[in-house]
Specification:
Layout: H1 17-30, E1 31-41, H2 70-86, E2 100-104, H3 108-121, H4 160-170, H5 173-181, H6 183-193, H7 204-215, H8 226-244, H9 249-255, H10 257-272, E3 281-286, H11 288-298, E4 311-319, E5 324-331, E6 339-341, E7 350-351, H12 352-359, H13 367-370, H14 378-401
Helix pairs in contact: 2-3, 7-8, 8-11, 9-11, 10-11
Length: about 400
């Protein structure tokens, strides 16, 4: 894949066509894409739960709570088509199992999002059409059980040190000031919803429920004014910030998003030293908290909840001189082009060695030890088990494709 020419913009019109040819030729010679890693959120869904006084309980939703909607399917079909167009020079036009590896969390909405996304990326062609009436082909999506997933589900459980950090965060001035500012508002929400305890960390679910109902043209209760939704949105975004930032952010990130970032940098580094590789793309289908955990570790999180089908992309480029660089892009609106995310302290096309150096502070050396997990605990076993599974799956994958 040649560096996307659409990323090249001019402050003023170039003096002549020859200049355009010269510059574009230079860019083509400079960057060639080797492998991409994509982390995206699932598409539009039903709410994960309702509140006691909600007139719309689970039966109001066709497939119940937390399920991908048809709108969500459309969002990921479009994202898949956009990814196909963006990486058309990197990926085969027809599906090749050696080129792409997809892993999802074990939730219906993320599994289905990945499947629909792949349908957009790889519409069957030629011999891959197994039924002329079906414009689709099955492509594998891998997952592990929810209680054993310590790569894509955040915040990760079984980490006593992280829980201690969260308790300390609740005592921080920032958290106490927000709690004081919205005390009366939270009491109003608790009274209107019938919740037993509407607090700074649980109120996100009220916003989530009302937002989903609003997006699906359901009539909201009279107390839900635009001002109420705005305040709920502020508290919802703050809950994301609290999980991975606000207080002792770097340590939180080492125990959370740094785990996923570590795996991504390992994959990128392996690609840089492997000749004639066939693997071109690794895809992770996950959640808003996954994207936030990752972007917090990279220090590029905007502070806002990622939209449905938002997509964080890592692109590894080989340069003319044999060195490698990493570029990041974020797609949070399928109607526009993705925009670059620049790692603090580096440039857009960050030298691989520099990328690894700058991210090292948030990469855990020994997650179990840093989490202060008691020896022999069940959660420790789960983490070791999932790390072992990741190693087996990826060792098998790289062995098959190189």
């Amino acid at each position: 894949l040649i560096l996307n020419k659409q990323s090249c913009t001019w402050a003023q019109p170039p003096p002549c066509p020859l200049f355009i040819i010269t510059v574009v030729t230079f860019i083509i010679a400079l960057y060639v894409s080797i492998i991409n890693t994509v982390v995206y959120r699932h598409g539009d869904r039903s709410p994960v739960k309702s509140y006691p006084n909600d007139p719309y309980q689970e039966s109001a939703w066709p497939q119940g709570f937390g399920q991908l909607s048809q709108k969500g399917m459309q969002q990921h079909l479009k994202l898949g088509q956009n990814l196909r167009q963006r990486y058309q020079d990197l990926l085969n036009m027809t599906y090749n199992r050696h080129e792409i590896f997809v892993r999802s969390t074990d939730y219906d909405r993320t599994l289905m999002s990945a499947e629909v996304n792949l349908a957009g990326m790889y519409p069957p062609n030629g011999s891959q059409v197994f039924d002329p009436n079906v414009h689709w082909q099955p492509i594998p999506v891998h997952a592990v059980p929810q209680d054993k997933d310590q790569l894509l589900l955040f915040p990760m459980s079984g980490c006593p040190r992280y829980e201690a950090l969260m308790n300390e965060t609740r005592k921080s001035e920032v958290f106490k000031n927000m709690s004081s500012t919205y005390k009366d508002f939270l009491e109003m929400v608790q009274n209107k919803t019938g919740l037993k305890d509407a607090n700074m960390e649980s109120v996100w679910s009220v916003h989530d429920t009302l937002f989903c109902e609003q997006m699906h043209n359901m009539t909201l209760p009279p107390w839900v004014t635009p001002d109420v939704m705005e305040k709920l949105g502020i508290l919802k975004d703050f809950s994301f910030q609290v999980m991975f930032g606000v207080y002792k952010s770097e340590e939180k990130c080492r125990l959370q998003g740094g785990v996923l970032l570590n795996q991504i940098t390992k994959n990128i580094s392996a690609s840089a030293v492997t000749k004639n590789q066939q693997l071109k793309m690794i895809v992770y289908s996950a959640h808003d908290t996954t994207v936030v955990a990752l972007q917090s570790a990279l220090k590029v999180f905007s502070g806002k909840q990622p939209t449905y089908a938002s997509c964080h992309m890592f692109e590894l480029f080989r340069e003319d001189n044999g060195s490698f660089s990493v570029a990041m892009f974020y797609w949070n609106d399928s109607s526009t082009e993705p925009y670059p995310l620049i790692l603090p302290g580096c440039v857009q096309y960050c030298p691989l060695e520099e990328f690894i150096r700058l991210t090292k502070p948030v990469i855990p050396v020994d997650w179990k030890q840093e989490c202060q997990v008691p020896s022999g605990s069940k959660d420790t076993g789960n983490f070791c088990h999932i790390q072992h599974l990741v190693h087996i799956v990826e060792s098998s994958l790289w062995a098959n494709v190189f």
